[in-house]
Amino acid sequence: MWIAIAALNLAVAVLLGAFGAHGLKAHATDVQLSWWHTATDYFFYHALGLFALAILAKIIPLLPIKTSFILMQLGILFFCGSLYLMALGLPRILGAITPIGGAFMIAAWLLLAWNALKYAK
After folding, report:
1. Alpha-carbon radius of gyration of the chain
2. Per-residue pLDDT, 90
3. Strands (DSSP E) along the chain, which ranges?
4. For residues 9 and 50, is the Cβ–Cβ distance under 8 A?
5. 111: closest CA among 71, 68, 48?
6. What is the pLDDT of residue 110?
7. Model confidence at 106: pLDDT above 90
8. Of the four, 36, 49, 82, 104, which is 20 to 30 A from 71 by CA?
9. Where are the alpha helices (DSSP H) in the chain?
10. CA distances from residue 62 to 67, 107, 109, 111 in whole angstroms, order as listed
């Protein structure tokens, strides 16, 4: 199931990237396009991270990755989602949500590192 979720995230990242490059370009400001670009970059990085976690779960079933996976998915939703919404013209106050998503992403990677160190022992 986790590989499917990661693959769906990657497909959505491609769709949103294409929309930003082709559909949004004529209607958005440079700042809005910058937000869109940043959101798409981080979406791809972390969707690939989800894919890596899903593969790790198959290769090393004893490595606990579920919480990292959930935190990373939440990070995508909060970080990228808030930037996408602002790029579409919604209020900039949504930018207050962006760091929460970033914190989820950081926590996901740190938790993975912690669990990997514990597993290695």
Report:
1. 16
2. 93
3. none
4. yes
5. 68
6. 98
7. yes
8. 36
9. 2-18, 30-59, 66-75, 81-87, 98-120
10. 14, 20, 17, 15
Contacts of 79 (CB under 8 A, 6+ apart): 39, 42, 98, 100, 101, 102, 104, 105
Assigned token pair, 18: 């294409």
Region for 90 from its dihedrals, namely left if φ exceeds 0, alpha if ψ lies in -120 to 50, beta otherwise: beta
Residue type, 15: L
pLDDT score recorded for residue 58? 94
pTM for the complete prediction? 0.93
Cα 21 to Cα 68: distance, rounded to the nearest angstrom:
30
30: pLDDT strictly greater than 90: yes
